[in-house]
Structure formats: structure tokens, C-alpha cells
Amino acid sequence: MAEFIPPAKPIIGDEEREAVDRVLRSGMVAQGPEVAAFEKEFAAHFVEGRPTVAVNSGTAGLHLGLLAAGVGPGDEVIVPSFTFAATGNSVALTGATPVFVDIEPETFSLDPAAVEAAVTTKTRGILPVHLYGHPARLRELSAIAEKHGVDLYEDAAQAHGASLDGRPVGTWGAFAMFSLYPTKNMTSGEGGMVTLADESVARGVRLLRNQGMEKQYENEVVGFNARMTDIHAAIGRVQLTKVGAWTEQRRANAAFLDANLEGVVVPPVADGAVHVYHQYTVRVEDDRDGFVRALKEEHQVGSGVYYPIPNHRLPSLAPYAPGLDLPVTESAARQVVSLPVHPSLTQGDLERIVSAVNAVAGAGA
Description:
By secondary structure, the protein is α/β, with parallel strands linked by helices. The chain folds into 2 domains: 14-240, Aspartate Aminotransferase, domain 2 (3-Layer(aba) Sandwich); 243-362, Aspartate Aminotransferase, domain 1. It is built from 12 helices and 12 strands. It has helices spanning 14-26, 33-46, 58-68, 86-93, 112-118, 138-148, 199-209, 230-240, 243-260, 288-299, 327-335, 347-362; strands at 52-55, 76-80, 97-101, 123-126, 151-155, 163-164, 167-168, 175-179, 192-196, 273-274, 280-283, 336-339. The protein has a 7-stranded mixed β-sheet, sandwiched between helices. Helix 3 crosses helix 7 (199-209) and helix 10 (288-299) packs across helix 12. The protein is globular and about 65 Å long.
């Protein structure tokens, strides 16, 4: 039987192991010089040198970014429902209300018209997700935010290196969060980066991640322990030297799939957008779940379904959205499948994926 092709595959090599050993030998393993260096290098690589703060997870990055930006009880933040729950959770954890609106079918990100209709006097900000590695409709969303005098934030968890009109994601909003979870386009083992437009807000994130203090025992605000360790930063610094080549490989893999897949709706790319293909997400309009089963059982090709239950229907977040109907979100949740696109795929793997998808789609799953 052919070897199973996994839907995602973290790449951790000898250089990452050596970096961890170097930190362990140094005796300084908590937040220290590796974290400071990683912040500077990440900022230079991805966000044109913006102030950048490392934290222990992407979710913590969203939460602390929102808090530092002043979001709290009585505020509303407009978010998509078609995303990982951390987006809505982070808003709710500030005491603010996540307001779920529909997505557009092409980018799977916030529909600007739906956002415009959802703005109220309580709206503090708009939080699009650059889902699967494709930038959200940042031109339109920026204009809506400016028109109404509200903030734009960015959930860039899956979008390291994506851009629109030559401008990187992570440089459009008051803050942006990048995840460094193992399956992302690059990893630090676990962690997140918050990039910020304003140094004073960046200082707020630094305070909040470290028990509310910059100087030991001089706690200025009530804070958290959301620090990144030097061990994790050392891994991230090595990955940062490789992520550019990995991204180009993802894009090349996606181009091969685009050119050869049949019977599914391949992911479109908007004008002016650079898609970094954290996931290569297609639509299967009939019997998606049967399609997924057949790929695995008959062809040994893995896939992922992100996200089968929209946030506004999760028991945890549904109380914020009573009676809400989001038809484009519901359609995506029923139809999407993410196929392997990671840089470890061989040409033979890609040909097997194409063959499997075309056979299953042609058979109607």
C-alpha cells in the first residue's frame, strides 16, 4: 500500500536542535536575549520593522493585543465566524462582545458589506482573519474602519509573508497576531508574535505579557504570564531563515494543484494578493465528508476540514449570536477541504494527490 501523505508536517531539523542545546547550555532559558533577537528579526523579515512582541501563543497575542488597544467591556469587535475559536474567544476574554458577520466566498474572510452593516456606536474595532494564508479584503476594511473611526486589527495566525498590493499583512492594523504553532508556515514549537503600529501600545503588550511589569517588582498594571521562552525563540530564529524558501515551495505546490485538479473549486487569489498557502483549501459541493473518507481510505491521502462548526454555533460562543444566520459561512463549513500543500511534498506526492482528488471527485465520492 502507498505511504500515507499527511495533511501537514512540521519541519524540525538539526539546526533547531542545536539552537535549543545552545540555549540550554547558556543557563538562560526564560525570556531573555533570544526572545529579544527573535522579535527584531521577525519584525525585519515580515512587517517592515514594526514594534514586535513575542508571547507564548497566538491566542495570547490576540488577547493581549486587544487589551493593549483598549478593548474591554461595553465594546464590540466585528469578527468572522468561519475561523478557529481563538478569534472570538480573545474578544470575549477582554469583556467585549464578538459580533459575528458573514464571509465572502472567495477569500473566506470578512465580507466588507456585512462588516459595514454591523457597525454600531459600540464598535471598537474590526478583526479580519487572513484565513488559510490569503489576505483579507484589507483595502475595503481599512476604508470602513477609517470612515467610522474604529480600529482595524489583524488575525494573521496563518499568513506569514502574505501581502496585498505589495504591503505585508501585519502592517495594516493597529496590531496583528502571527501564530507560531507547530503546523503553521513556521514554528517556534509554540508561541505568537504581536506586531504593532504604535510603540506605546507595544509597551502595553510587553507589560501585559510579564505580570504588568517592565522592571522587576514594579508592577504597573494587572498582567499575565504570557512570556515566550528563549528555548522557543531559538527554534523560531532558525525557522525564520528557512520560511522564505518553504513559502515559495508551498506556492509552487499550489500552482501545480491549481493546474491539474478537476471536479473541485480551487482557491482563487485576489488581484494584488500574495497567498502563502498555509492551507490549500478547495470546495467540494457534494458530500464533502465522503470525499475526505475516500481520499484517506482509497488513496492514502490526508486532508483537513477547517472549520466544520462555525463559531456562532459553538456552545461557547453561540450566546453572543442568538438566532444569527450566516449563509456563506454555513456553506463554507459544509464544503471546504484542505489538501496537503506543505513543503515536504515530493513531485510524486503531488501527482498522487491530483490523481486521488480527480478520481474521487469524478466518482462523486
